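Revision sheet: structure tokens.
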Amino acid sequence: MTTPRPARVYTAGPAVFFPDLAERIADVHRLAAERGLEAIVPGDVLDRPEGFPVPPSMRDIYELNVQRILRADAVIADLTPFRGPSADPGTVWEIGYAVALGKPVFAYTGDRREYKERVAPDGLRVEDHGAVDNLMIGASIASLHDDQAGALDAVAAWWVEQG
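Predicted:
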């Protein structure tokens, strides 16, 4: 009997912008491994192909992360508002790409307030669907959790269901 391979999980979010990126990468690898998962993390210099340019161009980073998402079985996405009332726009793109590929997206956020509560009044209508972000994002995710560990737990349970 062969041991099934671990699910590969792409971790979408704005972690690459934080000064403690190396710690964040180590943490998600540890959290994933504790659940029998393999993390695929943007910004992880140990997961770059041989000859990857230093410094990389915008296109290099884009192509690398597209390849990482293609390798993944699922995505976890940090929907915590970033530089505004909504999730990081790169994260939102990654969610859409994963959904278009048929990959499930499990999300987490550090701010459970509804999107409408975070948008500053400007005289325009704000959607009111009870979601923590735009309805297209909210409707794209399989489940929403309070933290990265909870999202990884959901991926692990989903992977077991996949057999």
